[in-house]
Structure formats: C-alpha cells, structure tokens
Amino acid sequence: MKIVDMHCDTISRLLELEEKEMREELRENTGHLDLQRMKQSGYQLQNFALFVELMQGRDPWEQVLKLHECYQREMENNQDLIAPVLCFEDIAANEEAGKMSALLTVEEGAVCEGEPEKLEKLYNMGVRMLTLTWNFPNELGHPNRVSLLTEKVSMLRKQLREYPVESMEYQAFYAQARPVFDVYLHTPNVTEGLTERGREFVVRMEELGMIPDVSHLSDRGFYDVLAMAKKPFVASHSNARAVCPNVRNMTDDMIVKLAERGGVMGLNYCADFLEEMPAGRKNPGTIAAVVRHARHIVNVGGIGVLGLGSDFDGIDTHEELRGAESMGKLWDALKAAGFTERELDLVFCGNVLRVYRDTL
User: Fold this and answer.
1) Which of 67, 94, 108, 241 would staple 52 via disulfide (CB 3.0–4.6 Å)?
2) How would DSSP label each residue in 7-53?
3) Are strands 264-267 and 306-308 parallel, antiparallel or unpaired?
4) pLDDT, one tens digit for every residue, the chain (360 residues)
5) Half-sphere exposure of 131 (CA within 13 A, CB side)
6) What is the four-CA torsion angle of 274, 277, 283, 289, rounded to 10 degrees?
7) Model pTM?
8) CB neighbours of residue 26 within 10 Å
9) What is the DSSP letter of 317?
10) How is 282-332 classified by DSSP, letter by letter?
11) How far is CA 159 from CA 79, 86, 123, 192, in A?
12) How far is it, in rounded angstroms, from Cα 22 to Cα 26?
C-alpha cells in the first residue's frame, strides 16, 4: 500500500504550537500526522498546506512566509525521511533514495493579495498547488460559505450544547436557529465565482505548473475554473454532496465534470462533511461514512476521479480514522466494500500521481 494525501494542515498546527511555546516537530508529534507514522503506514507523498485564516488579523503574506519558514526548517531537519517535490520526476527520485515526498501547497488565495508577482514568488518558494479561497471572499473569488454567518453559527452551536438533544428546550431553540444553519450549511453560492483577477491567476498557475484547487470555492467558482483551466485540476479535500448535503462537498455534476477534465477529488475525513448530526451534538466520524462517499463518487465519476485528502490536523479527530496510523483500516474497509486491489491502488496513490504527472 502506497499513500498519497492531497491535504493536511500539519505545518500550520506546528507553527501555532511554536507561537504558544508548546513546540512539536514533524518527525514525531501528538497531532494526526507525523513522519514516523507516515513511514510506518506506507506514505509515498503528503501535500503540506500553508493555511492562513484571514480573520486572525495578521498580514496574510507575512503569515504565509512564516509558515514557509516552518516548512523549510522541518524539511531540513528531516532530510533522512522526506524531501520536497518541485517537479513530477522528484517523486520517483525521492522514492529511489528511500525517502517520502512533500508537496507544498497554500490554502487561501488571499495571501497573494491579487498580485501576480506574489503568485510567482510562491512558485519559486516551492508551492505547487493553491486553494483559491478558504471560507472568506478574496481578490480571486468567493467561497460557498456565507462568511458573515460564521461567528453566529459558532455561537448558536455553543448554546445548543447546553441542552440535551432530546429535550424540549433543545428542540425549541433549534427550531429558531435552523434557518441560519440551513443557509450556512446547505445553501451554495451559485452567483459569485472567480473575479477577473482570479481567472487570470488560473491561467498563470497552469503556465507555471501550479495546480488550481477548488475545495472551499463557490459552486459558481468551480464552473469558472472549469471554463478557464486547460489541464486537470483538483478538489483536494472535498466529499459528495449527494451523500452529505454540506456545501463544502461536490455535486454529482461537479464530480462528472472534474472526472471528464482528468482531475481528482480527495476524500475528506472531517466528520461534518461525511454525515450530518443534530446541531450541538458531537459528530464522531465513522469509516462507514467514508466508504459511502467513496462508493458514490466512483459510481458517479468513475474510479479515476477519487483520491485522498484527509484534512488531518485541520479537523476534529475522527474517532475511527484517528491519524496517519489508521490508513490500513480505511484500505481494509474499502476492500470489504468491494473495491479491488487495483482500484484501491488508484484511490490511494495512482490517480493523484497521474494528475501530478500531467500538471507539474
């Protein structure tokens, strides 16, 4: 079993801990993913995202530079285990040298502040994939989330946790709050997509050899990328909306269009993107839910469109896929559900490597 994972937030977690003087290291840590567990589990390549949250009040460009310094330090300190990927041939070279591969990505197009020069600086820093938006509008485009509701939804969830789910108090409060949840969770943005600058960025990214990532992007934005991109692109960590109606997931039509373009979407292990629970109730996450998404995606778009995009260290701990050490469990569950060894090899590594061969 070889594993290629298109998205984790481990570098951002490590920097956050460092700033709190609780430093951990990529080689071994208490999060979802570290190099020791990756090696034991059979990882070939991990995408490491430099994630910047706009609402933290920091300069996004300065923050991505700090994250890059953290990434560089970890690569230098762990040269015996892992090496960066700058072009497709590096993956095979690293494997031949007995090392895993690291592909650097950025999650939040706003770090470029709409400046093409900064996009090229990211490329020169080793970035080979860019998530065009996170949960807030930026110079490149619009997300599916209604960002103005983020704080309100968080407050409502906190209040709901004060009541037992079966209680009359919970039911009454939830009835009042439900319209807000429905808009935030279930209403996609079908009118606002890429900006003109965002369209220019997609074209320039392909010229450079950088992959557009449509996870978090609005529904309209997905189709804008589809219209602009000439090469395969990805939804690095998104599931199927037909299985779980959260707007972070992809519609069947999107899955088909992505497959037709030769792109790949990565299974996200976030419990709330796998199946819905009543608001305020802890969602533990199950492997069975991951399998349902995998089967649906393959039935709709074919085996070639599915990959892995764990979102490790950016999500709550999944009760059954607790970290990099759990990938064997996912393999076994998918095999028990009828996936063949050949199909599993494509999902766990082959499909994403094909996209990298065609784009990097």
Assistant:
1) 108
2) -B-HHHHHHHHHHTT----SSS-SSS--HHHHHHHTEEEEEEEEE--
3) parallel
4) 999 999 999 999 999 999 999 999 999 999 999 999 999 999 999 999 999 998 778 899 999 999 999 999 999 999 999 999 999 999 999 999 999 999 999 999 999 999 999 999 999 999 999 999 999 999 999 999 766 677 777 787 788 778 887 788 878 877 787 788 777 788 899 999 999 999 999 999 999 999 999 999 999 999 999 999 999 999 999 999 999 999 999 999 999 999 999 999 999 999 999 999 877 678 899 999 999 999 999 999 999 999 999 999 999 999 999 999 999 999 999 999 999 999 999 999 999 999 999 999
5) 33
6) -30
7) 0.93
8) 26
9) P
10) -----HHHHHHHHHHHHHHH-GGGEEE---BTSSPPPSSS-SGGGHHHHHH
11) 47, 47, 44, 32
12) 13
As a whole number of angstroms, the distance between CA 196 and CA 206 comes to: 16
3-class SS at 170? Answer: helix
The residue assigned the tokens 């906190």 is 158
With CA atoms as reference, report the closest residue to 302 among 349, 241, 356, 261.
261
Q: 328 in helix, strand or coil?
A: helix
For residues 201 and 199, give the distance between their C-alpha atoms in angstroms, rounded to a whole number.
Answer: 5
Six-digit token pair at 73? 């330090």
Positive/negative CA dihedral, 298, 345, 75, 117: negative
Q: Which residue has the tokens 């063949």?
A: 340
Q: How far apart are CA 331 and CA 13, in angstroms?
A: 26
Structure tokens at 348: 């766990």
Tokens at 110, concatenated: 């706003």
Locate tokens 């400046």: which residue?
115
d(CA 270, CA 283): 9
DSSP code for 209: T
Strands (E) in 110-204, as ranges, are: 127-131
